[in-house]
Amino acid sequence: MSGRTQARACPERTCVGCRERAAKTDLLRIVAVEGECAPDPRGTLPGRGAYVHPALVCLDQAVRRRAFTRALRAPGALDTKALRRYVERTTVAEQATR
Q1: Cβ(30)–Cβ(51) under 8 Å?
Q2: How far apart are CA 53 and CA 42, in angstroms?
């Protein structure tokens, strides 16, 4: 035996809202597109990304702390209205399937 395990390591990221580490698959990637925060659920959009739990609590904390502007290295304030609508829709859809 080589001593290596067969289990693969799961990449972790830090939520910019609550600052907790979580698996990359549990977080929502956010990118800056033309002055606004755009959700990137597939993780394929180009550019720098920030990660947040898909929950309104973490989103509100990130907006209040201006974490998206800092994490995405944006020159000015970013619009988060589209991001909020996306998180609200996914939260409602997730609760409906339970």
Answers
A1: yes
A2: 15
One-letter amino acid identity for 42? Answer: R
**pLDDT for position 3:** 63
Please answer whether residues 41 and 28 qualify as being in contact, where contact means their C-beta atoms are separated by less than 8 angstroms.
Answer: yes
User: Is 4 within 8 Å of 16 (Cβ atoms)?
Assistant: no
Helix, strand or coil, per DSSP, at residue 4: coil
* Res 98: pLDDT: 72
| Dihedral (Cα; 78, 80, 83, 85), 10-degree rounding | -160
Q: Which residues contact residue 61 at a Cβ distance below 8 angstroms, ignoring those fewer than 6 apart?
A: 17, 18, 67
Q: How many angstroms separate the first and last alpha carbons of the chain?
A: 44
- pTM score of the predicted model: 0.86
Count other C-beta atoms under 10 Å from residue 89's C-beta.
11
Cβ burial of 93 (10 Å; 0-12, 13-18, 19+) is exposed
